[in-house]
Write a structure and sequence with these properties.
about 375 residues; two-stranded antiparallel ribbon; Excalibur_Ca-bd_domain; DUF1524 domain-containing protein; GmrSD_C
C-alpha cells in the first residue's frame, strides 16, 4: 500500500512536470510568433520606400532609359542656344577688334536718297584750314616721291607715285589723264542713306573731308565702286579687304551711321578670315603744307595739248558749242549736266573758274 501510494505520487509529479514543460514551450512559441508578427507589420513610409526600391518593371526601365537619353540632349541644346545668343550679342566678339566695333553699329534698312546732293558734303574745301584743298592734302599724304608745284604754297601735287591699296600695284600719278581719284571709303550717298541725311552742314562737311574717309586710288576702280557698300563692292586686292572693311566700320562708328543687313553680313564674312582684325586706329591726318614723302618743288610743265578755243571769246551760256566750235561752261553744274566733268586743261570747255585749285582738272 505504501509502495502503491508512492508510485501514484511519483506519477502525478511526473505528469505535472510534463504539463508544466509543455505549457512553458507553448508560451515561448506564442511569444515568438507575436514577435515575428511585429516585424512583418510595416508603416506607410516603409511601404513607400519598399515600392521605390523594388526592382523596376520593363515599362519603368524603358521610361527611365528614355529620360536618361533625352535629358543630355536637351541640356546640350540649351547650352548651344546660350552660346549662339552670346556670340550674336554686342560685346560677344573680342574687345578692340573691328568685329566688336561692327557689333555696336545699328542694323536698319536703307533710307531713301531723297534730297541727296554730293555738294552738300563740301568735298575739296579747305575743311582743316591749312591753306590747301582736301584733294591735294590726300595726294601729299598718300603719294611717295612727291613733286609740288612751285608757287602753290606747298599744296598742289604735280607728280609722285601711288601704292594703290585697291589695285595692289604701284604706278606714277599722271595729272594729264587724271589717273588717280580720291575715294570716299564710305560713299557719300551711302552715308546719306544710312543716317547722314539728318546731319547739319558742318557735320556733312566734316564727313566729306575727313582723312579717315578718304584714300587716293585708281580712277577706274573708284568709278567702278560708285556708291557701293561692302555687300556690292570690295577692292580687287584681297590683301587689303580686311583693312578696308575695318576702316568702313570705323567711319560709320565715328559718325553714328548704321549698316544694312546684307552689308553687315558681308563685313562679317570678310573679317572672318582676318584673325581678329583690330579696329582701325591708324593715324590718317593730313601733312602740313609743303610736307610729304621726299618732297621736291618744280614749275609745272605746260600741257602739250593745244587749246581748241578760238574766235572772239566764249559764249555766255550755261553750256554749248559756239559758232566757232568753242565750248563754255558757266559752272561745274553745267559741265556735269553736259556730261563733260571732269574737264581737263586742254579739253573743250576747260577754264580756270572751273579749276579752283589750279591742278589742271576742273569739276572733279
Amino acid at each position: 500500500m505504501r509502495f502503491s501510494s508512492f508510485l501514484n505520487h511519483a506519477t502525478n509529479r511526473l505528469w505535472a512536470g510534463v504539463v508544466f514543460a509543455l505549457i512553458t514551450v507553448l508560451s515561448l512559441a506564442l511569444l515568438s510568433a507575436c514577435a515575428d508578427g511585429g516585424d512583418v507589420e510595416v508603416s506607410a513610409d516603409d511601404a513607400s520606400w519598399t515600392l521605390e526600391s523594388s526592382p523596376p518593371t520593363a515599362a519603368t526601365a524603358e521610361s527611365e532609359a528614355e529620360t536618361e537619353a533625352t535629358t543630355p540632349n536637351e541640356s546640350s541644346e540649351e547650352e548651344d542656344m546660350s552660346e549662339e545668343t552670346e556670340q550674336g550679342r554686342a560685346g560677344g566678339s573680342t574687345p578692340g577688334t573691328a568685329l566688336a566695333m561692327l557689333d555696336e553699329l545699328a542694323v536698319k534698312g536703307r533710307a531713301p536718297k531723297t534730297g541727296y546732293d554730293a555738294d552738300l558734303f563740301s568735298w575739296r574745301s579747305d575743311a582743316d584750314h591749312n591753306g590747301c584743298d582736301t584733294r591735294n592734302d590726300v595726294l601729299r599724304r598718300d603719294l611717295r616721291g612727291i613733286t609740288l608745284k612751285a608757287g602753290s604754297k606747298g599744296c598742289v601735287v604735280i607728280a609722285g607715285d601711288l601704292s594703290d591699296q585697291y589695285k595692289g600695284e604701284t604706278y606714277a600719278f599722271d595729272r594729264s589723264p587724271n589717273n588717280i581719284d580720291i575715294d570716299h571709303i564710305v560713299a557719300r550717298s551711302n552715308a546719306w542713306q544710312t543716317g547722314a541725311a539728318t546731319f547739319d552742314e558742318d557735320t556733312l562737311k566734316d564727313l566729306g573731308n575727313d582723312p579717315l574717309n578718304l584714300l587716293a586710288v585708281s580712277s577706274s576702280l573708284n568709278r567702278q565702286k560708285g556708291d557701293g557698300d561692302a555687300a556690292t563692292w570690295l577692292p580687287p586686292a584681297k590683301s587689303y579687304r580686311c583693312e578696308y572693311v575695318s576702316r568702313q566700320i570705323a567711319i560709320k562708328h565715328k559718325y553714328d551711321l548704321w549698316v544694312v543687313k546684307a552689308e553687315k553680313t558681308a563685313m562679317k564674312r570678310v573679317l572672318g578670315a582676318c584673325n581678329d582684325q583690330p579696329a582701325f586706329t591708324k593715324n590718317v591726318a593730313w601733312p602740313d603744307p609743303g610736307e610729304g614723302d621726299n618732297v621736291t618743288t618744280a614749275k609745272e610743265q605746260p600741257s602739250s595739248k593745244k587749246k581748241t578755243n578760238s574766235g572772239s571769246g566764249p559764249k555766255s551760256s550755261e553750256s554749248g558749242t559756239g559758232s566757232s566750235g568753242s565750248v563754255f561752261y558757266k559752272n561745274c553744274t553745267a559741265a556735269r549736266d553736259a556730261g563733260a566733268a571732269p574737264v581737263r586743261r586742254g579739253d573743250p570747255g576747260y577754264a580756270s573758274h572751273l579749276d579752283r585749285d589750279g591742278d589742271g582738272v576742273g569739276c572733279e
